[in-house]
C-alpha cells in the first residue's frame, strides 16, 4: 500500500519522440463502483477490465469484510457475489481504505443505513482529508460518526437502524459526496433526493440504473435533481470497465509536449462529466484528435491521437468545466509550462483537498523546476515558458499523491534537465503499469 512501504525515488529524463499505442488501465471510478454495487446486488456480478490498482484492491478487500464473496480468475475476470441492499455484515476488524477517498466515502455512504458499526482508516494522506462532507449528510439518515478532530479518519460509524430518506443539496462539487448520499438512500424507505448545482461525474447514477435501481435525474433551475427510490433489489450485472480518461491524460500530455511524438490511446471513455481536459488541451492549440468515435455501453468512446504540439498557447480554462477535469489539473499545469503565456485556472478550490493540496504541491514543484506560478485559495496561474524553455532539474515532493508524481514524470520528458520525485510509490494506486507503459512509448524513467 502506498505510504506504508519504502519510498521509491524516481526521475524522468529528456527523451526522444514518444511513439506507439498506450493501452491504459480501467477506469478507477467505475472499478470501485463495480465492486461496491456488485456487493450490494443479489447474485453474481462479472467484471472485466477492472483497474487492479491499490485503491480498487482495497475496496475489494473491504467488500469481502462486509460479507461479499469476490474472486479473480487468472485471465483477470472478477466475480462478485453480493449480499443485497441492507445485507452487509459487520466487519470483524478496521476497514483500511489506503489512499482512496472514493473507496472510503462511497463505502461510508453504503453502510450508513445498515445497523452495523464500522471503523475506517487509511494512509497518512487519507487520514488528513475531510470526511464531514459525508458524515453530515449520513447523519440526516440517522447514522452516527465518531472521528478525530476536524472530521478526520480514523472514524467509527454506527449505521442507522431505522433510516429515513433525505433531500440533500451537495454543498461542493463532489461526485463522492453525491454518491455516498445516493448509496445511503438505497437502504432507506421512500425517495432520497440529491441536488447538485454543478454536474459531477455521473457513474453512480448510470450504473445504479444498470443494476435495476429506480433512479432519475432532472435538470432544473436548482441544478441536477437526482431521485432514488429506496430498497430496490439490485440485479447482478456483467460489466466491461472502460479505460480511464484520467490515466489517458498522462500519455496524451506527454506526447503533446515531447518533440516528434505521435501516440494513440485507444478506447477512452468521453463521458462529458469526465472529458474536460481534452477540450482544454485543444483550446491551447494541442494536436489532439478523436478517432473512431463510437458508443459503447451507452457511453461515448474514441481513440485519442496526440501529437507533439510546438505552438501551445496559454488559455483561460473554463471554470464551468472544472468538475469534468478535476483530477487532470496537475498534468494540465505541466502542459501549461510548455505553452507561451499564462494559463489561468479558476474555480478549483476542491484541488486543495485531494490526495494532497494539488495547487500547493504542483506550484512548489513547478517553481523548483523554473516555472512561475501565482495562486490563491481557488485559482492558480501557470506562466508558460514556451517549448524548449522549461528548465527542470529539481526534485519535487509527491505528497503521497499519484497524480503529482506522474505529472512531474511527464514534465521531465521534455524539460531541459531531469525532473525527479521523492516518492513514486503512490503511482501504483491508480496506474500500476505507468513506468512500463511510458517506457514502451520511449520515455526515460528511472528509479534512483
Ligand atoms: C471521484 C470523484 C472525484 C475525483 C476522484 C474520483 C469518484 O472526487 O477527484 O478521483 O469516483 O467519485 P470528489 O468527489 O472529491 O470531487
From TrEMBL:
Keyword Secreted: no
Active-site residues, Swiss-Prot/TrEMBL: 327 (proton acceptor)
Catalytic reactions on record: 3-phosphoshikimate + phosphoenolpyruvate = 5-O-(1-carboxyvinyl)-3-phosphoshikimate + phosphate
Gene Ontology cellular component list: cytoplasm
GO BP term, pick one: amino acid biosynthetic process
Gene Ontology MF terms in the entry: 3-phosphoshikimate 1-carboxyvinyltransferase activity
InterPro entries reported in the protein's UniProt record: Enolpyruvate_Tfrase_dom, Enolpyruvate_Tfrase_sf, EPSP_synthase, EPSP_synthase_CS, RNA3'P_cycl/enolpyr_Trfase_a/b
Keyword Transferase attached: yes
Domain spans labelled Enolpyruvate transferase: 16-436
EC nos: 2.5.1.19
Binding-site positions, 3-phosphoshikimate: 28-29, 33, 174, 176, 327, 354
Localization, UniProt: Cytoplasm
Positions contributing to phosphoenolpyruvate binding: 28, 101, 129, 176, 358, 403
Pathway assigned to this chain's UniProt record: Metabolic intermediate biosynthesis; chorismate biosynthesis; chorismate from D-erythrose 4-phosphate and phosphoenolpyruvate: step 6/7
CDD domains linked to this entry: EPSP_synthase
Quaternary structure note: Monomer.
Protein function: Catalyzes the transfer of the enolpyruvyl moiety of phosphoenolpyruvate (PEP) to the 5-hydroxyl of shikimate-3-phosphate (S3P) to produce enolpyruvyl shikimate-3-phosphate and inorganic phosphate.
Sequence similarity: Belongs to the EPSP synthase family.
HAMAP family the record matches: EPSP_synth (MF_00210)
Name of protein: 3-phosphoshikimate 1-carboxyvinyltransferase
Organism: Thalassovita mediterranea
Amino acid at each position: 500500500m502506498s505510504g506504508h512501504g519504502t519510498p521509491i525515488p524516481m526521475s524522468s529524463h529528456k527523451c526522444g519522440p514518444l511513439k506507439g499505442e498506450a493501452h491504459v488501465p480501467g477506469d478507477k471510478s467505475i472499478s470501485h463502483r463495480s465492486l461496491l454495487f456488485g456487493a450490494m446486488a443479489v447474485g453474481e456480478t462479472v467484471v472485466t477490465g477492472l483497474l487492479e490498482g491499490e485503491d480498487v484492491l482495497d475496496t475489494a478487500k473491504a467488500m469481502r469484510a462486509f460479507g461479499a464473496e469476490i474472486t479473480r480468475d487468472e485471465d483477470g475476470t472478477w466475480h462478485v457475489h453480493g449480499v443485497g441492499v441492507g445485507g452487509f455484515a459487520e466487519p470483524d476488524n478496521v476497514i483500511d481504505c489506503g489512499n482512496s477517498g472514493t473507496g472510503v466515502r462511497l463505502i461510508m455512504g453504503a453502510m450508513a443505513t445498515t445497523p452495523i458499526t464500522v471503523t475506517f482508516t487509511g494512509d497518512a494522506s487519507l487520514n488528513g482529508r475531510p470526511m464531514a462532507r459525508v458524515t453530515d449528510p449520513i447523519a440526516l439518515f440517522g447514522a452516527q460518526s465518531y472521528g478525530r478532530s476536524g472530521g478526520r479518519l480514523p472514524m467509527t460509524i454506527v449505521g442507522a437502524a431505522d433510516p429515513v430518506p433525505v433531500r440533500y443539496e451537495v454543498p461542493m462539487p463532489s461526485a463522492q459526496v453525491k454518491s455516498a448520499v445516493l448509496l445511503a438512500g438505497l437502504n432507506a424507505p421512500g425517495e432520497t433526493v440529491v441536488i447538485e448545482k454543478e454536474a459531477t461525474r455521473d457513474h453512480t447514477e448510470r450504473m445504479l440504473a444498470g443494476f435495476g435501481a429506480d433512479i432519475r435525474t432532472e435538470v432544473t433551475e436548482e441544478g441536477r435533481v437526482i431521485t432514488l427510490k429506496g430498497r430496490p433489489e439490485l440485479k447482478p450485472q456483467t460489466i466491461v470497465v472502460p479505460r480511464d480518461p484520467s490515466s489517458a491524460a498522462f500519455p496524451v500530455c506527454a506526447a503533446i509536449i515531447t518533440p516528434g511524438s505521435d501516440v494513440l490511446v485507444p478506447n477512452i471513455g468521453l463521458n462529458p462529466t469526465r472529458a474536460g481536459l481534452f477540450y482544454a488541451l485543444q483550446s491551447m492549440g494541442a494536436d489532439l484528435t478523436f478517432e473512431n468515435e463510437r458508443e459503447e455501453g451507452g457511453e461515448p468512446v474514441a481513440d485519442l491521437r496526440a501529437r507533439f504540439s510546438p505552438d501551445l498557447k496559454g488559455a483561460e480554462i473554463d471554470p464551468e468545466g472544472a468538475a469534468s477535469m478535476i483530477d487532470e489539473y496537475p498534468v494540465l499545469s505541466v502542459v501549461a509550462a510548455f505553452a507561451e503565456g499564462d494559463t489561468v485556472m479558476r474555480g478549483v478550490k476542491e484541488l486543495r483537498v485531494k490526495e494532497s493540496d494539488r495547487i500547493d504541491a504542483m506550484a512548489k514543484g513547478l517553481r523548483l523546476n523554473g516555472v512561475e506560478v501565482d495562486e490563491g485559495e481557488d485559482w492558480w496561474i501557470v506562466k508558460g515558458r514556451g517549448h524548449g524553455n522549461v528548465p527542470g532539474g529539481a526534485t519535487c515532493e509527491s505528497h503521497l499523491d499519484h497524480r503529482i508524481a506522474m505529472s512531474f514524470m511527464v514534465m521531465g520528458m521534455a524539460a531541459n534537465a531531469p525532473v525527479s520525485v521523492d516518492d513514486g510509490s503512490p503511482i501504483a494506486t491508480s496506474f500500476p503499469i505507468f513506468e512500463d507503459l511510458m517506457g514502451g512509448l520511449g520515455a526515460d524513467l528511472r528509479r534512483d
